[in-house]
Amino acid sequence: MRENLAIIHSPLQRASSDLAGDFGAQVVGALIDEVTLAPKPGLVDIRSQGAHHDLDWKLMCKSALALQLTFVELAQAGIETRPLPELRERIGAIGRDGEARMMDATHGVNTHRGAIWALGLLVTAAAREPDDLAADAIAARAAEIARISDRHAPLQTGHKGEQARIEYNVGGARGQAQAGFPHVVQVALPELVRSRQRGDSETAARLNALLAVMASLDDTCVLARGGRSALAEMQSGARRVLAHGGAATLSGRRDLKALDRRLVELHVSPGGAADLLAATLFLDRLQVEAPATTKPNTTNA
Is the alpha carbon torsion for 283, 284, 285, 286 positive or negative? Predict the structure, then answer.
């Protein structure tokens, strides 16, 4: 009888589980949308490895699918755990487990480390208040979580992005999160909307959103590989594409191809911008395909 009772779930538990599952699926969908988008300058997409030798579209998709459970667990934590310090440490542990899961799926290749951080915070924040899924509200909640320290996190990871953040004195992924993802809320999402409103294709609109981020982001992935000179070339190249009408125009597409060639020559890839594009697509998805499950009335986990 005890064994039978162990598998019985209350309606609230089922509602919570369904909601977390919906959010996790939305994150994975956004990650796959991001990596499939083409042509992305210097980045892996469905037609190219970009500036990478150890990554391709199939591996990125495999990694995204392997992380679905991680994002479901993060959403579940957002639903269940109300005290912010407790929530921060819980999602930190889930994120580190997710990174190990990613490395196992990819045989040691870093495919989505930055995305686990950015989208992990956002999916947690979204699930925490599923009745308020406005992009700026989710980003503000994510920032509140990100600004809390995790006692169990390593003081230094040794990751290239972290080293670049320190060496070049830029905010990096941590700074973006703690500031409420300004390049998502104030840059990429508005560009996505503008491009759609003027009749650009969805592919062009998403590429323009990426380019808008690239045009001003101090991308630590680029800094780590190419320093400030490569960053300046990336930013000026992205601004040139947008100034010539973006990815929907013939002139803009020519500039986009030239920027892609140059970043590949420099062996730099704007992975930070790609993570923020995935975050943008996730928040955009929530405006159209918000999980329909009613928010469960939860208390402290």
Answer: positive
d(C-alpha 155, C-alpha 4), whole Å: 44
- Euclidean distance between CA atoms 186 and 261, whole angstroms: 28
Which CATH architecture is the domain 11-148+169-288 placed in? Orthogonal Bundle (1.10)
- DSSP string covering 254-288: HHHHHHHHHHHHHT---HHHHHHHHHHHHHHHHHH
96 residue type, one letter: R
Task: Quick: pLDDT tens for 36-91.
Answer: 999 999 999 999 999 999 999 999 999 999 999 999 999 999 999 999 999 999 99
- Residue 55 · residue 61 · CB < 8 Å: no
Q: Which two tokens stand for residue 57?
A: 């579209």
- Cα separation, 26 vs 29, in Å, equals 5
- The yes-or-no verdict on residue 6 having pLDDT over 50 is no
Nearest alpha carbon to residue 18 among 79, 67, 92: 79
**219, containing H or E segment:** none
What one-character-per-residue DSSP string does 80-109 give?
A: H--SHHHHHHHHHHHHHHHHHHHHHHHTS-
- Answering whether pTM is above 0.85, one says yes
The single-letter code of the amino acid at 187 is V
